[in-house]
Amino acid sequence: MAQSALIVIDMINTYDHDDAALLIPSVEESLPAVTRLLHRARELDVPVIYVNDNFGQWRSHHGEILETALKGPHADLVRPVAPDDASLFVVKARHSAFYETPLGYLLTQQGADHVVLCGQVTEQCVLYSALAAHIRHLRVTVARDAVAHIHPDLAEAALRMMERNMGARISAAEDVRF
User: What is the pLDDT of residue 94?
Assistant: First the structure.
């Protein structure tokens, strides 16, 4: 049976990086849509998989990444989207959620042939993850209002590329079909 999975990209974040000042306003804007999308997925028993950067901390694990972000100055951006006990978690080190991670295997184990992407950064990790999903023959949906960007013009171009070149469905979070 075909199954969808919600992939939450890099939302567990300390925002301690060079582009944070440009990213934070977009995260604040997208946060309500990400939260609603998470709530809907959980209500429908859709697997929720957090794929998060390890920020170069090679001894870290998902609990430590979350704990560090919740102790940081931007915990207000993390707390509303924190994983629950049913959430799955994959640690990544590069832009794509699939690169050198077990995400592809996990999706197979979940019976998922459709991924719904939300999180950050639209023109970086979301774009590369959408491409990686596409080349794995997964259907891709990107919730336009549930992704955050650093550069608005590049984010718009990335969304157009995902739609045109990868066949991704780009929609508002409330219109996402799991």
Answer: 86
Long-range contact pairs involving 39-43 (C-beta distance under 8 Å, separation at least 24): 40/176, 40/178, 41/6, 41/116, 41/178, 42/84, 42/86
DSSP 55: T
* Backbone phi and psi for residue 130, each to the nearest 5 degrees, phi listed first: -65, -45
Q: Per residue in 37-67, pLDDT tens?
A: 999 999 999 999 999 987 666 556 677 889 9
- State what percent of residues in the chain have pLDDT above 90: 89
Distances (CA, A) of 135 to 5, 56, 86, 138: 17, 27, 28, 7
Continuous segment of H or E residues that includes residue 67: helix 62-71
